[in-house]
Amino acid sequence: MKVAIVSAMPEELKPVLEVVNIKKEEKFGIPQKFIEAKYKDNDLVLCVGGIGKVNAAISTTRLIEKYNPDVLIMIGVAGALNPSLKIGDIVVAKDAVYHDVDVTPLGYKIGEVPETGIIWKGDEDLVKDFENICKENLKDKKVLVGRIASGDQFVASKDKANWIRETFQADAIEMESASFYHTLNLYGKKGVVLRAISDSADEEANIDFPTFLNEVSQKFRDIILSYLDKT
User: Fold this and answer.
1) Which CATH number fits the domain that encloses residue 29?
2) Could you tell me whether strands 21-28 and 32-39 are parallel, antiparallel, or unpaired per DSSP bridges?
3) Residue 86, domain member (yes or no)
4) 21 neighbors 35 (Cβ within 8 angstroms)
């Protein structure tokens, strides 16, 4: 099986790269990078896709068209919208929406991409598999199957976060997942998004982000290896 693992930042993939057999690397523009590797019997493509919706769509499209993986997994961090989520908790995204799309003056619903849709779904079987794997690997953290809201904004306002939560019934917020699922849905590919909560998307977020990112990335590595060991 060929599995693609996608992240916005290289730091998120570093722990995985340390335990796989790297075969080939390709750079595509800035900042995208595609690394072909092997883990046991699995062929891997690890992709640093860059931050934001356009980078996510371009890197996912290139992954599909050039490497044709069977499964695509996106990992990374997100801000919490659901008040039950704390720093370090995991959201396994059942679906995703764009919180910054607004074509309502032309009669569309808030968040609706004209003639295309509002909600972009992950693969149900993968979502369930990774919910179970995350719970097995993260005994001390909450694992929530939920909805992610994506947009080309770093939200650090409680009022804005509350509006997104209430409007879209979203649990977490970041900048790539909706584009990732949107692209997968159009191509008919299987994929799942895993997000670790890094902040509360408000003015009071205060963590040692580099340390947090390193710890979370190691947990993602363990989760991904658990999945690969089961396939």
Assistant:
1) 3.40.50.1580
2) antiparallel
3) yes
4) no
- Establish whether 199 is a catalytic residue: yes
Cα 80 to Cα 86: distance, rounded to the nearest angstrom: 7
112 is catalytic: no
Tokens standing for residue 127: 């979502």
- Residue 151 in any domain: the answer is yes
Catalytic entry in 12, 89, 95, 176: 12
DSSP state of 63: I
Of 56-60, 67-71, 199-203, minimum mean pLDDT range = 199-203
* Residue 215 located in a structural domain: yes
- pTM metric for this prediction: 0.94
Catalytic residue among 26, 199, 222, 229: 199
Distances (CA, A) of 211 to 201, 208, 215: 19, 6, 6
Report the relative pairing of strands 2-7 and 190-199 from DSSP bridges.
unpaired
